[in-house]
Design the sequence.
């Protein structure tokens, strides 16, 4: 009821949930074995979310073909903690525990395929498997989400309802003073324990020990509340029917003792957390180091090996070194221009490509940035052409590419220090400059200008004002 | 800050090379060899870390220090910044023939914006990347020696980025610290496009001296501006 144990048992034995609940209650009232059994099941049986996660992971790892209800197997005997059973026994419990109304056989056969292996086409099987894995993951995620959501309610109502139960019991058994004297404190202790233990539940354990702050404030508060309630219950249990003064004094003494224990153990606790923290940091560092080592191996060492092998081929060595430098630079000082939807990243990519293809040295300066849209793509295509053109004619000198994203448009310059050329002298059938650069820019409401001085090189300017885009889109 | 008033450069310009890689130092020596043989430059010392650099610079009082941004030693990062801070007394006085000002030209493989800005704001007169060619480097050293600033295309790009390229951002008065004047912006854009000072001058129909004045003004703004975008922008880049 509290933690969904009854539901789990009901699913497992295929009995009505209500019957199982009544069984638990009756067993509890007949001297307590029901409560003990309940607590035992709660503590030892893994909840469905974590079990399903484990199973999904296992299935993904072993690539065992399966189909249909992928996590139902995990729910055999599972308990979806914290089921808000006390509030609305029928609704959320069912939602959590039976996410897929598959036939019961699926529970038994989950893990061994029923349909997908029959399929004659391997591809179909694979697709089905992938879909099943995706579905399983989604389902597990959904369960975790649901259990998170319902946890809060479980906490609140577990406490409230137990207190209410106390009151009811007290009222109905006023004749049996001794009985009530035992029951009430026990119930108080139990409710405190529920509140406290709920914070330790499986779904949250990772959060407790995660690096993103080990716990939330609400969790701490609820934990404290649980502890207080438990202590109160124990004191009441021990000091039955004692006079209020004694109870008060005892409570005070208890608080004092607890305080003392805290003082003694706090440094130890802090040190424990610190150790844990530094271990975690160490692991992160180790992972980082491994990452760097892997990168250096994959890129730098490989390139160095290549360079040694091709040491006779000077242009090739220069090209390799240049490509490696670019790669390493991007990795070390990545300026955030690796988002492929942004202009700066596209410019970097297309110049890198030109360096590789033409063996040229291209220095790129980008000012401002903006997302790539369709018109920007046309500018980038023209720019690619311009860069290729410059690379062909640069004659080994470095090429300068300057792209500025202005508030009202994009402007790009490509400058080389080659011999320069006369645009009018370029034959009509040469598509390069005339069509791919000038024509393309003009079609998209921009402009291209080629300025070439013999002996000083060539500069191509591409301008794409924004105003055109609005008209074009409408 | 050193005075921008130009004094005729006394040749040879005395240079100290500061870099922690000996191979690179000898490479720079080789690049500058022609200029040295022509009597334009004189390499008076070398240093490999922060402590050594501060000592060598204090001892030789060179005209120009070619300063690697990332230096080992010291406590401040990047190391080049600490050299600048600890040599401040050599750069902050009036420039006279008897007591010449030492000027720093930052030289680095790092394109990381925060490093560039760190050394510029600590007082470097310019920034060039190590891929610079020999003749360009000689020209840069001579420019810095004469009290002007040297901007690589990339640094010009940084400046345009940091000071914003928006149309409404143009300074109304030239000495407004947090904005570039329209002319300064034009000069920066041409430098970012790969134009040499001479070409910038030709393009804008102004003298090379005027270009140098504009660049020095931008350098001053870069050093003194409290423009919050500048810090924010550098911080943004650091994260990535």
Sequence:
């Amino acid at each position: 009821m509290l933690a969904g144990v009854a539901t789990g048992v009901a699913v497992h034995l295929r009995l009505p949930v209500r019957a199982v609940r009544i069984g638990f209650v009756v067993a509890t009232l007949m001297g307590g074995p029901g409560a003990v059994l309940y607590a035992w099941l709660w503590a030892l049986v893994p909840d469905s979310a974590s079990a399903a996660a484990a199973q999904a992971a296992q299935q993904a790892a072993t690539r065992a073909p399966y189909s249909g209800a992928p996590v139902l197997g995990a729910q055999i005997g599972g308990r979806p903690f914290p089921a808000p059973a006390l509030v609305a026994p029928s609704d959320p419990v069912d939602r959590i525990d039976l996410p897929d109304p598959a036939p019961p056989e699926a529970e038994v056969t989950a893990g061994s395929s029923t349909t997908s292996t029959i399929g004659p086409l391997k591809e179909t099987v694979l697709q089905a498997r992938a879909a099943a894995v995706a579905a399983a993951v989604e389902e597990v995620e959904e369960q975790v989400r649901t259990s998170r959501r319902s946890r809060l309610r479980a906490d609140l109502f577990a406490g409230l309802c137990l207190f209410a139960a106390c009151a009811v019991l007290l009222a109905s058994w006023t004749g049996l003073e001794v009985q009530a004297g035992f029951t009430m404190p026990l119930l108080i202790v139990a409710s405190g324990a529920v509140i406290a233990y709920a914070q330790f539940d499986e779904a949250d354990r990772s959060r407790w020990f995660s690096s993103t702050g080990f716990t939330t404030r609400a969790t701490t508060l609820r934990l404290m509340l649980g502890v207080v309630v438990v202590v109160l219950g124990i004191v009441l249990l021990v000091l039955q029917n004692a006079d209020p003064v004694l109870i008060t004094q005892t409570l005070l003494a208890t608080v004092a003792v607890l305080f003392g224990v805290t003082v003694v153990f706090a440094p130890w606790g802090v040190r424990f957390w610190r150790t844990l923290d530094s271990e975690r940091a160490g692991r992160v560092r180790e992972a980082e180091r491994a990452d760097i080592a892997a990168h250096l191996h994959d890129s730098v060492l490989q390139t160095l090996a290549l360079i040694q092998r091709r040491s006779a081929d000077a242009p090739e060595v220069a090209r390799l070194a240049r490509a490696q430098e670019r790669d390493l630079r991007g990795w070390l000082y990545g300026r955030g221009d690796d988002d492929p939807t942004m202009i700066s990243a596209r410019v970097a990519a297309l110049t890198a490509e030109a360096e590789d293809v033409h063996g040229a040295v291209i220095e790129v300066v980008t000012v401002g940035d903006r997302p790539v849209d369709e018109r920007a793509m046309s500018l980038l295509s023209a720019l690619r052409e311009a860069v290729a053109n410059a690379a062909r004619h640069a004659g080994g000198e470095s090429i300068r590419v300057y792209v500025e994203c202005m508030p009202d448009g994009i402007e790009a310059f490509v400058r080389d220090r080659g011999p320069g050329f006369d645009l009018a002298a370029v034959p009509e059938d040469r598509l390069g400059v005339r069509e791919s650069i000038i024509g393309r820019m003009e079609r998209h409401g921009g402009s291209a200008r080629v300025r070439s001085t013999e002996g000083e090189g060539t500069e191509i300017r591409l301008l794409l004002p924004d105003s055109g885009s609005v008209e074009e889109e409408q | 800050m050193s005075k921008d008033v130009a004094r005729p450069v006394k040749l040879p310009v005395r240079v100290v090379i500061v870099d922690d890689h000996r191979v690179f130092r000898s490479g720079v020596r080789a690049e500058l060899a022609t200029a040295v043989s022509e009597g334009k430059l004189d390499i008076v010392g070398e240093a490999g870390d922060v402590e050594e650099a501060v000592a060598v610079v204090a001892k030789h009082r060179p005209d120009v220090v070619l300063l690697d941004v990332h230096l080992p030693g010291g406590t401040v990062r990047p190391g080049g910044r600490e050299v600048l801070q600890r040599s401040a007394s050599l750069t902050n006085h009036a420039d006279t023939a008897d007591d010449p000002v030492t000027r720093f030209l930052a030289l680095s493989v790092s394109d990381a914006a925060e490093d560039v800005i760190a050394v510029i704001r600590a007082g470097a007169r310019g920034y060039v990347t190590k891929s610079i060619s020999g003749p360009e480097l000689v020209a840069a050293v001579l420019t810095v020696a004469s009290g002007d600033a040297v901007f690589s295309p990339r640094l010009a790009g940084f400046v345009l980025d940091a000071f914003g390229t928006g149309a409404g951002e143009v300074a109304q008065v030239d000495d407004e610290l947090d904005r570039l004047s329209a002319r300064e912006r034009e000069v920066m854009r041409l430098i970012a496009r790969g134009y040499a000072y001479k070409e910038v001058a030709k393009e804008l129909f102004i003298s090379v001296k005027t270009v140098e004045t504009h660049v020095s003004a931008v350098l001053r703004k870069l050093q003194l501006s409290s423009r919050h975008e500048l810090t924010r922008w550098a911080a943004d880049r650091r994260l990535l």
User: Anything to note?
Assistant: Residues 60-120, 202-214, 469-474 of chain A have pLDDT under 50 and may be disordered. The two ends of chain A are 62 Å apart (CA to CA). The first strand of chain A starts at residue 362 and ends at 367.
